[in-house]
Write a structure and sequence with these properties.
2 copies of one chain form a homodimer.
Chain A lengths: L1 H19 L12 H4 L3 H12 L13 E2 L14 E2 L3 H17 L2 H17 L1 H12 L3 H8 L1 H19 L4 E8 L2 E14 L2 E5 L10 H9 L3 E5 L6 H16 L7 E3 L9 H6 L3 E7 L2 H10 L4 E5 L5 E4 L1 E2 L2 H13 L11 E5 L3 E3 L2 E3 L1 H16 L2 H8 L5 H10 L4 E4 L16 E6 L3 H4 L7 E7 L2 H15 L3 E5 L3 H13 L3 E4 L32 H5 L2 E9 L3
Parallel strand pairs in A: 5-6, 5-8, 6-7, 8-9, 10-12, 10-18, 11-13, 12-17, 16-17, 18-19
Antiparallel strand pairs in A: 1-2, 3-4, 4-20, 13-14, 15-16
Helix pairs in contact in A: 1-5, 1-8, 3-6, 5-8, 5-10, 6-7, 7-8, 8-9, 13-14, 18-19
Protein name (chains A, B): Phenylacetic acid degradation protein PaaN
GO molecular function (chains A, B): L-glutamate gamma-semialdehyde dehydrogenase activity
GO cellular component, one term (chains A, B): cytoplasmic side of plasma membrane
Amino acid sequence: MGFFDDHRDLLVQALQAARSRGYWSAFPEIPSGKIYGETARADGEAAFATLLDRPFEIDQPANGRVGREVSPLGKPLGITYPKSEPAALIAAARNAGGAWAAASVEERVGVALEMLARINRQSFLFGNAVMHTSGQAFPMAFQAGGPHAQDRGLEAVAYAYDEMTRVPRQARWEKPQGKSPPLLLDKAYRIVPRGIALVIACATFPTWNSYPGLFASLVTGNAVIVKPHPQAILPLALTVRIGREVLREAGFDPNVLLLAADEPDAPVTKELALDPAVGIVDFTGSPVFGRWLRENVRHAVLFTEEAGVNSVVIESTDDFGGMCRNLAFSLSLYSGQMCTAPQNIYVPRGGIDTDEGHKSFDEVAAGIAGAIDDLLSDRARAENVLGAIQSEETLKRIEAARRLGRIVRDSSPVDGAGGARTATPLIVAVDAADEHAYLEERFGPISFVIAVATAEEAIERAARSAKEKGAITAALYSTRETLIDRASEVFARAGVALSVNLTGAIYVNQSAAFSDYHVTGANPAGTACLTDSAFVANRFHIATMRRPMAA
Amino acid sequence: MGFFDDHRDLLVQALQAARSRGYWSAFPEIPSGKIYGETARADGEAAFATLLDRPFEIDQPANGRVGREVSPLGKPLGITYPKSEPAALIAAARNAGGAWAAASVEERVGVALEMLARINRQSFLFGNAVMHTSGQAFPMAFQAGGPHAQDRGLEAVAYAYDEMTRVPRQARWEKPQGKSPPLLLDKAYRIVPRGIALVIACATFPTWNSYPGLFASLVTGNAVIVKPHPQAILPLALTVRIGREVLREAGFDPNVLLLAADEPDAPVTKELALDPAVGIVDFTGSPVFGRWLRENVRHAVLFTEEAGVNSVVIESTDDFGGMCRNLAFSLSLYSGQMCTAPQNIYVPRGGIDTDEGHKSFDEVAAGIAGAIDDLLSDRARAENVLGAIQSEETLKRIEAARRLGRIVRDSSPVDGAGGARTATPLIVAVDAADEHAYLEERFGPISFVIAVATAEEAIERAARSAKEKGAITAALYSTRETLIDRASEVFARAGVALSVNLTGAIYVNQSAAFSDYHVTGANPAGTACLTDSAFVANRFHIATMRRPMAA
């Protein structure tokens, strides 16, 4: 019970935070030497450099090496990972899973919390690993790939712990029989895992999006096979290696946690997902593969985050400058490669009322475009906000999007970014009728300013597109409380998280663990929410044993 | 808030009972005049008689009448119900659903608890309605169709209430910013239903199996369409009529709860299940239709209870007589037409040790058969235990099963049962190798005594058949604690509830609300458990709205 006792206070705080949902964070997001140690930054960079151009060792069943990651900043990482056949991974997970399933809730939760604590101490290394796979600039790679991901993992552990400990281990069942002696049974309940859990991660947020499913499945007793995106293996290889170290120290077979690295031309995901021993699949990625999983994974519980078309509706504002700056940042952050980034900005054809007087449709579009130019005018700041483009495909999407309407702000590489793959935001103006242009997800720094008759029409269109195409976030700018109420109701029904009148240093893209429910599961953007009870409660079942009471 | 306040104490007790899982029941199971009123029995019979041979009125959208129920006791009921087109039901549910979704959790829970209270007061009427549709004898029809079903409904309400009230309505999010003022957001959370819920009920336990899904969907804000089995409409028509009365009194559109009655040659279930407005489907019935639902219902959350092959493993006993009597009752109760009834009784070829000395395989089989003969030797008792056979198909299955092995005890109609369709238990002896005989569900009073080498082999076979064919219950008779431990673990992993050494007045078929988890969702017997968190948590989603704090 060592690890559990070590982290018990943190768990209690996490449980409370998940209920009250005010601001709370377990893992400091500031990349500061005062918190992480004076030499942490340099140590993290050095540790990352040491990993390059050599085999990354994990002592799991393997018969070769794989790995061809290329940093979006330009350089191949040169790292290879153990190549493990799906059947070997399944067999190893199955062997390791028995004792893990039989361990107490406290033992498993203790192991998970210790993993998170050790991962946290290496946050600078994770920041470098996430930066050189996702293309995020370092400040974001540190935060989102480090402490924020760890917070999301902890949140899932807390939810799972809560659900499992709602079930008593035993009960005495005593049924009165009038004047006769009561009927007496001893009952015992046990938490039984679903089987092996497969976690399929993405390239843009390799840790943030995978930790909730990984840790939820792990603490509910399932052995976990982590299948990273072939371009973002390193952050999860580090995670698995740390996890195996903790498992071993706690006396478990480290094969409770395994890495399934592969290369784009020899993918192993489908074979793993179809294995009947797999009882849970968590997936973050494209709707094309999401659909394949939804159609083919019948034997396992499936949690997906796929894609969406996020909307902004602008009706009026009492801070035009703040609104434009806020949206400029949301559109620029990590070059729009966030599942929460806005794509479709609806503006009434007749313009809007603002604190700077009436602004025409074109003036609103120009205001946002101008705020982007201002934000990116400083090259260092531009690099820190934009980061790099994770996938070559995104550059092709930008090129195609240029032809979809009138270019309000063109995309260009960042000057002096060297070998990095970069692109500033493209904004295209279209009419609401041009649905072919804006009603599909165009992942990357691509957005549309869409002319509509009224804000009410915009809300209806945005909600309908959420229901049909999926959406995770929406933003509204309005000084009319009745419109805000209406939008709250409509977007809630469409399964979209709504942010209203953000003009300062909070952005629609941001989703805070313990407070914001990320994805609802109620539209095609995904089938699961990070994190609610439904995300954890189905990862185990409850088995009852009953017998007459011992005399 | 009237109804909620009326029943608040009951709800609090239900929440506590669901956590402690000792014996607790809200609705008295004894059909006594002292509890239900001195004239309750006669009133229930009279009320039932009044319903026969005439239209049953429900004021919902309809364009004709349907209904051709025939009592398994022999007489057509002669009752017709409103015929409502699926599209009309969906439209009515959708119209009614908006205000229901917008109501507070307390309003909805109050309405549900009042429905259950009024249903409870009519338990004698429900007993008659369930008897004349399912074929259960009155004592069981009263208990299982009345108070026990009501308890299961209340249990689902309590779980759903618990999950919904874990989410605060609002939160203040205050993020420190060092020496700068904190970032401040107001957040509001809302519970949003999935859409319209469809509840597809079965003919054998029309209320017990449908109330959990019905009430869980209702209180989480979904309008509910109840689709009864065409041979067991009446108990659910009564439920819907009472429910609509309460809804109307509480100021809601009664179309929040609708009946979709149909006839066998013009079924409406598939059309309803495929409607994109349907967000939840609960189903109890055959694996054939269950499979169709699993393959075709992609747009909705699906909860099923299908079928299973339940096993008994006999290794040794210190109460041979008690064991035989206990199993005799389990095999005879409602003529084996329970999803929890045993089918496969594994006995070592070499016999077993008992308090009466060693018993050979044949002596064990004869002991159980003899105990059935004793139990059924009194005609009144036989009728009260066996009830009638719900479906003609079951008689055909008995006929076919006679040829599958050596008949240990033959099935026959009950003497003097008049026009009722009856059949006593058939027991067939087979060898473990005859898997074609016993490894599929043969619903009804059909069981196999199966010769195995050892009890260990039997446990492995029973667990494997549970994993492959589904199973809800298992029973073990053994005086060896190590074998009991082993069986507990193996059956838990197979997703089966295990009863050990039942020799008295508790039977493996029985599943008590608030204590026994009915079905695990972990084998093909069904995808859901009555009731755990997973059964309720996914019937709604949580929508977040956030905005900078008002000054």
